[in-house]
């Protein structure tokens, strides 16, 4: 056997060790390149968190921004965002295409950040999503303001060499973050006066838009509705 053949065989053997049984059964060629499908280990009813994290990981713009944050972030302070970035990086750099991973550090940080999640009870996934998105946005804004504050620290600008605004407050960034760019929408509400018919409008920003769903009273009603649709179709 030649050296090239020997190296090729060793490479295939090493790669084979990194392929799961599921990949062998399905076929590695069926998986999109650069994608990894990893389940998250449940730590006592943390499925509310796992389901949201899975959805966010496969929201490509969000995943790319989180991984970009990890690559650029030089801070050593642990936050929920750094833990999320570490989790996403761990999934994205796995050798296998499928498997499972334990988000221990993220869950531990979550329980420190929010008392409501510091237990082993089931939680609402929608409430967790709202908390996570808003909390990440707050972290980004706080770090941005801190960076701006360091830049604006010039001798003689204030008591401690810090620039202040005309009303004596520290400057804060109002520029939208990438969280706004991905998730924020604008809801316009219009009000019409019944007397003069003047219409006034108001814009409100939101991260989530709730839509009411019609609730059926029983399984019989659901079955009857489905039957009517089939008959009409």
From TrEMBL:
GO CC terms: cytosol; nucleus
Reactions catalysed according to its record: Thiol-dependent hydrolysis of ester, thioester, amide, peptide and isopeptide bonds formed by the C-terminal Gly of ubiquitin (a 76-residue protein attached to proteins as an intracellular targeting signal)
Residue ranges occupied by any USP domain in the UniProt entry: 38-233
Keyword Plastid: no
Classification via Gene3D superfamilies: Cysteine proteinases
Keywords from the named record: Hydrolase, Protease
Keyword Protease set for record: yes
One annotated GO molecular function: cysteine-type deubiquitinase activity
Alphabetical list of InterPro entries matching this protein: Papain-like_cys_pep_sf (IPR038765), Peptidase_C19 (IPR050164), Peptidase_C19_UCH (IPR001394), USP (IPR028889)
Domain of life: Eukaryota
Positions in coiled-coil regions: none
GO biological process, one term: proteolysis
EC code: 3.4.19.12
Family: Belongs to the peptidase C19 family.
Name under which the protein is recorded: ubiquitinyl hydrolase 1
């Amino acid at each position: 056997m030649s050296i090239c053949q020997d190296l090729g065989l060793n490479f295939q053997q090493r790669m084979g060790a990194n392929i799961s049984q599921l990949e062998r059964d399905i076929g590695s060629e069926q998986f999109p390149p650069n994608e990894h499908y990893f389940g998250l280990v449940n730590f006592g009813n943390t499925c509310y968190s796992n389901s949201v994290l899975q959805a966010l990981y496969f929201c490509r713009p969000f995943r790319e921004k989180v991984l970009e944050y990890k690559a650029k972030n030089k801070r050593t302070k642990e936050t929920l965002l750094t833990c999320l970035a570490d989790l996403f990086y761990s999934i994205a750099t796995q050798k296998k295409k499928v498997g499972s991973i334990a988000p221990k550090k993220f869950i531990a940080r979550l329980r420190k950040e929010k008392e409501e999640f510091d237990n082993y009870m089931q939680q609402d996934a929608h409430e967790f999503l709202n908390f996570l998105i808003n909390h990440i946005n707050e972290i980004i804004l706080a770090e941005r303001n801190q960076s701006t504050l360091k830049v604006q620290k010039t001798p003689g600008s204030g008591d401690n060499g810090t620039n202040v605004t005309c009303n004596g407050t520290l400057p804060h960034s109002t520029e939208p973050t990438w969280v706004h760019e991905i998730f924020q929408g604008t809801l316009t509400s219009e009000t019409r006066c019944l007397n003069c018919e003047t219409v006034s409008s108001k814009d409100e920003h939101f991260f989530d838009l709730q839509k009411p769903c019609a609730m059926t009273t029983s399984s019989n009603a659901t079955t009857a509705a489905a039957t009517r649709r089939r008959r009409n179709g």
